[in-house]
Amino acid sequence: MTVENLVVDIDSLDGPLGHRVYSVLRNGILDLTFHPGMILRKGALCEQLGVSRSPVAEALGKLSSEGLVDIIPQSATRVSQLSLSELREESFLREAVEVAAVAKVAADRNDDQLTRLSRNLRLQALLAEDRDYQGFFEADVDFHSLIMEFTGYPKVAAAAGQLSLQLRRARILLLPKEGRPEETVQEHQAILDAIRAQDQQAARAAMSAHLGQLITRLTPLEQQHPTYFRPS
Amino acid sequence: MTVENLVVDIDSLDGPLGHRVYSVLRNGILDLTFHPGMILRKGALCEQLGVSRSPVAEALGKLSSEGLVDIIPQSATRVSQLSLSELREESFLREAVEVAAVAKVAADRNDDQLTRLSRNLRLQALLAEDRDYQGFFEADVDFHSLIMEFTGYPKVAAAAGQLSLQLRRARILLLPKEGRPEETVQEHQAILDAIRAQDQQAARAAMSAHLGQLITRLTPLEQQHPTYFRPS
DNA sequence: CTCCTTCAACTGGCATGTTAGTTGACAGGT
DNA sequence: ACCTGTCAACTAACATGCCAGTTGAAGGAG
Question: Is A57 on the interface with B (CB under 8 A)?
């Protein structure tokens, strides 16, 4: 395992050094370049990133408070492992926030918002047809972000993302065999229809049903990637 | 302004020094000992707490990522100010989570949980009668914490607290003139009744109505404490 | 009197030396 | 062969020195 590729990134960003290190590590953890359970050696990170221990320590501290790394006092720092119970909690929280968001958007939506959602949905259909799973994944994320953005509460999307960091890592694991983009598009379509009809109840129900799919598909992962999960 | 009183606290806690400093500062900010907008001088904090700059910097970094302090690079660190728009966002998020929680609890509740909620509610009635606003405030917080605890998701209560840190500070401002504990008790009673009846819709509605009260009572604060609010 | 320039003092950010605690392996005894 | 006590190497945590950017006040020009 090497992180030589990250050395390039480090000075292509701006802002305080500590924050750049934080971003690099965070991205690496979220896209599983640093896999769950991996031990992070401060000394090695300093050397490979070409910075001193202060910004690295600061970055690891923030990641720890986000739950992305576990710091064992005086001993070691490791990328936090996944756990089904934690994924279920995050799923619950994410559903709570997104259901509330879609209800508000259904009540307040304007034509421009409908247009942007509709455009994103057509893009999803195209990507699904082309079997471009990576692109589809991003369009999917965008769809949900758009809805939260349309609440008029700028921090809501960020908060929802913060609440479901583990979920985001777990989703990467089932990316290759996505396999059900068509169903996803239909579920998204149902959500958009409810928003267009300004039917709050239907919007809640559609979003809830859609998000409920994820946790069932996540359950088998614990067997498929046992080393990525916290021993229970 | 002095923080001499905190010097006693610092070694009465345990764990890493950085985390102790973090706790002390966090508590001070949340109970408005450090009022919104106040400038925090790293050097002064180090001297008064009797520690070096490393743990203080670490603590301020975490507080910054929580939004409790604003760090102006190369210049100053200040306790973050309140803003009505931010309070509205947090109110929205808090309502989303607590409404989802109460619906789940209404579905799953057992007798022991009903007993504990009922006991807390009787305590609230007593404290309201005695005009013990401080005690009532704590019982109120406990009531909501109990519901979130009963979801079976241990992190939900913590997440909800994390999402509404500004809200928590703002509530302190209207503590002295609480004035409506009786209405609050009745709203709590309605929530408990819905939980007992396992009526999810009623539970959602009761919780939503209850939490909706807060933001209207918060609105006048911007005039009453202009220095605590971000200039808009 | 007002505005601009300059400079000194202060701040946060970073690097690095030092300390204390944990861990795992090795050696010695059972 | 196995258990146990000891020790060496490693880690995170802390202290401190240094630097660069910001700010605000003082002084000079208009």
Answer: yes
- The residue written with tokens 């991003």 in the block is A138
Per DSSP, B82 falls in state: B
Contact list in A for residue B18 (CB cut-off 8 A) is: 61
List the single best residue of A89, A91, A200 to mutate versus B (max B Cβ within 10 A): A89
pLDDT in tens, A183-194: 899 999 999 999
Rounded Cα gap, residues A225 and A105, in angstroms: 38
How far is residue A12's CA from residue B129's CA, in Å, rounded to a whole number? 63
The three state secondary structure string of B25-55 is HHHHHHCCCCCCCCEECHHHHHHHHCCCHHH
Q: Could B73 and A16 be called an inter-chain contact, meaning their C-beta atoms sit closer than 8 Å?
A: yes
Strand C–CB B57 distance below 7 A: yes
What span, in angstroms and rounded, lies between the C-alpha atoms of B145 and B151?
Answer: 10
- The region of weakest confidence among A177-181, B63-67, B70-74, B104-108 is A177-181
Look at residue B1 in the predicted model and tell me its pLDDT. 42
Strand partners, A76: A72
Rg, Å, chain B Cα set:
19
Nucleotide with C1' nearest the B71 CA: C12
Instruction: Give, to the nearest 10 degrees, the angle between helix A154-163 and helix A84-108.
Output: 160
Q: Which positions ≥6 away from A179 have C-beta within 8 Å? A: none
DSSP H or E segment with residue B78? strand B76-79
